[in-house]
Amino acid sequence: MSGRNCGSARITTVLLDLDGVLMDHRAAAREAVGAWLGERATPDVVDAWFASMAVHLAEWRAGTSTWAEQRRDRLRDVLPLLGEPVGTDEELDALFESGYLPAYERAWRGYDDAAPALAALRAAGYRLGVLTNGTETQQRAKLRVLGLADAVGPVFTAEAVGAPKPDPRAFLAACAGLVVAPEEVPYVGDEPETDVLGARGAGLSAVLLDRDGTAPPEETAVIGSLAELPGLLRP
């Protein structure tokens, strides 16, 4: 932990991200590509998949692509590397839903520090909530599979609130749903721009969960594990 920058207002509620905070999305995606493509999942192909995912999810967050289209675009980028033809939208949807997606779902796993940290926060008297980019069906399914659906409090997805992070409307919608003022809420996320700067831009405080030690040097509210979060928030 390197700092105590959670704002000066009394903290009543903690809002957390899902992917990268409660669930190891990156490991699940990497495992899914390997299971889906088998021997064809070379390092170059896996790197291309992640690079494509980053580009097209950013387009979706910017509102220039739909959720379905960013999935198709990932396949449009990677299939030529495999020597596979790029088919119609309908064929791409079928391939994603029969190949990568079920493998990704089988790989969903929570971080070991997630459940204990949530329990500690609740024991300390904090209300909890989740704000996550993605669809209602998939993100709620993740929490059920992880065994955290009853532990996280209300869940707000980009699909349901009508705006993805880092749009301030996403954070403000979650605060409104929790009936709490933004200044009473720290947001805990793993992405400096989408999560931390997005939350602060909406008037929340923010904590960066930096599991891999790559936090920007200027960031002060940083933890390396969710186990550190209750201590960071303690007045």
UniProtKB/TrEMBL annotation:
Keywords: Hydrolase, Magnesium. One of its GO terms (molecular function) is hydrolase activity. It comes from the Bacteria. Its cofactor is Mg(2+). It holds the Pfam family Hydrolase. The keyword Transmembrane does not apply. This is HAD family hydrolase. It comes from Amnibacterium soli. The lineage of its organism: Bacteria, Bacillati, Actinomycetota, Actinomycetes, Micrococcales.
